[in-house]
Amino acid sequence: AGLPNAFGQYDEGPEDTAIQVADFAREGLVNVTGGCCGTTPDVNGGAKFA
Fold first, then answer.
1. How many structural domains is the chain composed of?
2. pLDDT digit string (tens) for 1-49?
3. How far apart are CA 17 and CA 43, in angstroms?
4. 6 vs 1, 41, 42, 43, 49, CA distance in Å?
5. Rounded to 5 degrees, what are φ and ψ at 4?
């Protein structure tokens, strides 16, 4: 997930995204998450385990 690189690929893996989303949630910055281009169930589901 994240932004695509110059080749249209995504360099950020589900683990990276999960850590960032979990940090945002702990800070009280989010209460709902979702995804768009490049996200998979692995990305969205990983945040609950981070």
1. 1
2. 667 889 988 888 778 877 888 888 889 998 777 777 767 777 666 656 5
3. 7
4. 14, 24, 23, 21, 30
5. -70, 150
Q: Record the tokens describing residue 14, joined without a space.
A: 């589900």
In a domain, residue 22? The reply is yes
Question: What pTM did the predictor assign?
Answer: 0.56
34, 44 contact by CB (below 8 A): yes
The answer to whether the CB of 24 falls within 8 A of the CB of 40 is no
Range(s) of the domain holding residue 30: 14-49
